[in-house]
Amino acid sequence: MPRSQNKVASRARKKKVLKLAKGSFGRRKNVWTVAKNSVEKGLGYAYRDRKAKKRTFRALWIQRINAAAREHGMSYSEFMGKIHQNGVELNRKALADLAMNNPDAFKAIAEKVK
Q: Residue 91 belongs to a domain with what CATH number?
């Protein structure tokens, strides 16, 4: 009995990968083996960088809070320590947003925790 090849499924798999490779340069967009490797690598980077994005944004928020806190005579660690002691329920994202877009509100928070 001859071996069964499921052409429908294999073609669908290849079309899916080539669609993901669309926009790539050279053979990466239209040669199956090259496109498959490129797409696999790209999906790996996408997974990794969804995690890294969270780290980089947290670092950015900390830098912004630190800069704003130093304008009010405190370091970042002092400021965050006093925030937690006084029970202010604002996370770093919200504090950084206040520091950038509403300095008066950040000043009020800094004065409250001093």
A: 1.10.1900.20
pTM, to two decimals: 0.78
In a domain, 4, yes or no: no
Sequence length of the chain is: 114
Integer Cα distance of 101 and 56 in angstroms? 20
Q: What is the pLDDT of residues 33-42, one digit of tens each?
A: 999 999 999 9
Long-range interactions of 90-98: CB distance < 8 A, separation 24+: 92/58, 92/61, 92/62, 92/65, 93/57, 93/61, 95/61, 95/65, 96/60, 96/61, 96/62, 96/64, 96/65
Question: Which candidate, 67, 55, 54, places its Cα nearest to that of 106?
Answer: 67
